[in-house]
Design a protein that fits this description.
The chain has about 180 residues and is an alpha+beta fold. The chain contains 9 helices and 5 strands, in the order H-H-H-E-E-H-H-E-H-H-H-E-E-H. The strands form 2 sheets. Strands 1-2-3 form a 3-stranded mixed β-sheet. Strands 4-5 form a two-stranded antiparallel ribbon. Helix 1 (about 5-15) crosses helix 2. The longest helix has 21 residues, at about 125-145. It is about 45% helix and about 15% strand. The chain has helices at about 5-15, 20-25, 30-35, 55-65, 65-80, 95-100, 110-115, 125-145, 165-170; strands at about 40-45, 50-55, 85-90, 150, 155-160.
Length: about 180
């Protein structure tokens, strides 16, 4: 049995999975586009194209001019040129997707510049798993301290006043008017 690092596993996963690339781009969208993350959101990645919804024609024009910089940031994040084109669409942004961007990232999260600097090569597999567990617990505590609740039915974290998350209550995602 060959032991490989978690970083190598993630890089292999990024090479194979378009959905994992999409998850990384969504998670680090603020680091990729800066303050325009509040006026834009990633829709999907398909056929090496990143589809992004942008609120307002002025923001769309500005992001179109910065497309080259965004592509370089994505290439650095994913350690490869997996996205060849960014396609912008004008539309309203879902406010629920932006709530996490208003609070700081938990201690365990890394910025784009820090991703390459984390070296797990000296850690054993058990230490890596322990580190991931600690980061997960820190993130959960951070979210609970910042207004999130734990669903009594499924245990997922969510924002709201109820005891059960919207999914357990049977409420589908709905579009809301952006407050920005």
């Amino acid at each position: 049995m060959k032991i490989i690092s978690v970083g190598d596993m993630i890089n292999d996963g990024i090479k194979k999975s378009e959905s994992l690339r999409e998850a990384f781009v969504k998670a680090y969208w603020k680091d990729i586009v800066g303050n325009l993350d509040k006026k834009s959101e990633v829709i999907k990645i398909k056929d090496q194209k990143l589809f992004v919804k942008v609120e307002g024609s002025a923001n769309l024009h500005f992001m179109t001019m910065k497309k080259g910089i965004y592509l370089k940031n994505i290439e650095k994040l994913l350690n490869g040129k997996y996205i060849q084109e960014i396609v912008y669409k004008l539309g309203k942004i879902n406010l629920n997707n932006k709530i996490l961007n208003e609070v700081e990232k938990p201690k365990g999260c890394f910025k784009i510049d820090e991703i390459d600097s984390v070296d797990f090569s000296d850690y054993s597999l058990e230490e890596r798993i322990e580190r991931l567990s600690i980061v997960s617990k820190e993130r959960e505590l951070f979210l609970l301290e910042n207004g999130y609740k734990k669903c009594v039915q499924c245990g997922n974290l969510f924002l709201g006043k109820n005891l059960r998350c919207p999914k357990c209550r049977g409420i589908k995602d709905r579009t809301v008017v952006n407050k920005y």
